[in-house]
Every structure is written in C-alpha cells, then in structure tokens.
Amino acid sequence: MSFSGKFQLESQEGFVEFMKAVGLPDDLIEKGKDIKSVSEIQQNGDHFNVTVTTGTKVMTNKFTLGQESELETLTGGKVKAVVTKDGNKLKVTLDKVSSVTELVDADTIVNTLTLGNIIYKRVSKRVA
Hints:
This protein is mostly beta strands and 128 residues long. 11% of the residues lie in helices and 60% in strands. It has a single domain (5-123), classed as Calycin beta-barrel core domain (Lipocalin), CATH 2.40.128.
C-alpha cells in the first residue's frame, strides 16, 4: 500500500497535553485544537514529501527512508533524523518525540506521537 494521498484529520486524543509538553504557547494550542489539518503525502519508492496544513501554518518535510534528513518539528525547529519503514508504519524520533505513522487501510492514517508518558493520537481519513 502506498502512503500517497491527501488526508484530513478526523479525530485526535491528547492534543492539549502533548502540545503543552513540547512547549507550544497556549494561544497557539487554543487556536489549533479545533482545526482539521490536512496532510498531503507524495511517496515515490523510498522518497517522501509530506505537507501538513493547519490553518495558515504549512509544514513540509522531505525525506528518504533510511537516510538522515533535516525535518521540521511541531514547534518549528529543525532536527536531523532518520525515518524508517516497518511494514505499513513510518517511524522517526525528533528530539524526544517518537512518531509512528501507520497506514491502517487504504483510507486511514493513524499518527501516534509520544513524549515520555504523554501520547497524542491523530486519525486522518483520505479525501483525495
């Protein structure tokens, strides 16, 4: 299964607690908690281009599986990390945040972000 497509956030758990833990300001947390972000993923073999649009904020990350890439974090910082693929899951650790993006089926992506014992889970459905 290919990750390519456009996915819109359908539900999320743990947003406020997680964003506070990573240091996002309260005003941005308040603005962002009800926005249905859109993730557009282009996969070409092991090469990925991921664009996440949340309101007016656009975050784009390009990476090749197994190779070090510079990736933008949720707070806007840049870190070098290696994204790996395990079956239908993409895994990466950015600073202290572990991210697993799972292609559950052809139309559903579940992204689970973990920081210590704080978990933020996002479920997105394919719109294109």
